[in-house]
Amino acid sequence: MIKRFSFYMPTRIEFGPGSLKKLADTPYLPGRKALVVIGASGAMRRTGHLDRTLKYLRQNKTAAVVYDAIHPNPLSEHVEEGAKLAKRKNCDFVVGLGGGSTIDSAKSIAMLAKNPGRYWDYICGGTGKCKEPKKGALPIVAIPTTAGTGTESDPWTVITKSGAKEKIGWGNDDTYPKLSIVDPELMLTVPPDITAHTGMDAFFHAVEAYVATCSQPASDLLALESAGMITLYLPVAVRQPDNLDARTKLAWASTSAGICESLSGCISHHSIEHSISAFHPEVPHGAGLTMLSVSYFTWLSERVPQRFIDLARVMGVDMDRLVERERPGAFVKALRKLIRDIGLENESLSKYGVQRKEFAAMARNSFQTMGGLYKITPAKMTVKDVTGILDRAFF
């Protein structure tokens, strides 16, 4: 039985190797002066991606201002600084060039450049004031250089409040990118560890969207395809970073999982990880999800096994060879194998400075800041349950 659902996906996506060149002549640029947002690491300059982007914009008669202060697990202070720069330079759209942190920041900057006050005034959860951004947002162009968050095809942006342990997702119809250019050639320079971390982020977007109570027919199809493709091609890309075919498959898997985030949603796995990296910002988001995943999905699949059986099947498990009692655990076994295949089996929370004594506070924080995702998780969870999941994930 197909339940009632809503389908809204307004982003124009230009996909495929070499597609960055479309910036030079596309008629779909939403303005004539861009704030180009990049990370603070200098990677976009070292790889030449920034120079090429600026060149193509100039060829399309578009001026640009560069803002280069964004860090992993981006901060609200940089959103506010970027928004002030966009206003001061009279930018009429925002380009996010880089990974998920950069494109998320571009979305948040685009909103705050059109609305008064501080960024956290508009955040719902934690100490946010949950105000409505009545003036919308500047148009956004997303150019991902990693296959991870899928933020190029959804409205969501995740920012940490500066000086606080609050890492919260937010977005609305105005923060969908107007145009996204997904060029797998830009991903050939991503090192193996970041390839693995970002690929697992995309994998969990697909998995969570499939099991969420708000899933729908279109998200189901894309989620299963994405989970299967990542299982096949992420180990290849980690071992062979210059394999363009694998990079292209992963790029589509990430983008399609991002579409799933628009049509369905993440569940509390992301709520808990946001608390981990709010307490310890040095934890890469994809690494945090991976370190948590076996414990989390063991707990969840024991309670609602059916959809995990479907996921195990697309991950290559021959379900017909398993007896009935083995089927609910097949997804977690396949997940463990994927984690080994990409070299993340030795990642540990303790390596990043996480301590057991923090778990109860992290669990409470996950409900206080990202409690909405618990509502679409297919089994009811308590703070005690989450504390136990964290404890079992720890080594």
User: Proportion of β residues?
Assistant: 5-15%
Counting structural domains, the number is 2
How many strands appear in the DSSP assignment?
8
- SS-derived structural category: alpha/beta
What strand line-up does the widest sheet have? 1-8-5-4-2-3
Spatial shape: globular
Radius of gyration computed on alpha carbons: 20 Å
- CATH architecture descriptor of the largest domain: Up-down Bundle
Question: How many separate helices?
Answer: 13
Largest sheet: 6 strands, parallel
Commentary on this structure:
The protein has 395 residues and is α/β, with parallel strands linked by helices. It folds into two domains: 12-187, Rossmann fold, CATH 3.40.50.1970; 192-393, Dehydroquinate synthase-like - alpha domain (Dehydroquinate synthase-like, alpha domain), CATH 1.20.1090.10. 45% of the residues lie in helices and 11% in strands. It has helices spanning 43-46, 49-59, 76-88, 100-112, 192-211, 217-239, 244-263, 268-279, 285-303, 306-314, 330-341, 359-370, 383-393, and strands at residues 12-15, 33-39, 63-70, 93-98, 140-144, 157-160, 167-170, 179-182. A six-stranded parallel beta sheet has the order 1-8-5-4-2-3, with helices on both faces. Strand 6 (157-160) and strand 7 (167-170) form a beta hairpin. Helix 5 runs antiparallel to helix 6 and helix 6 (217-239) packs antiparallel against helix 7. The radius of gyration is 20 Å and the shape is globular. The relative contact order is 0.12. The mean pLDDT is 97.
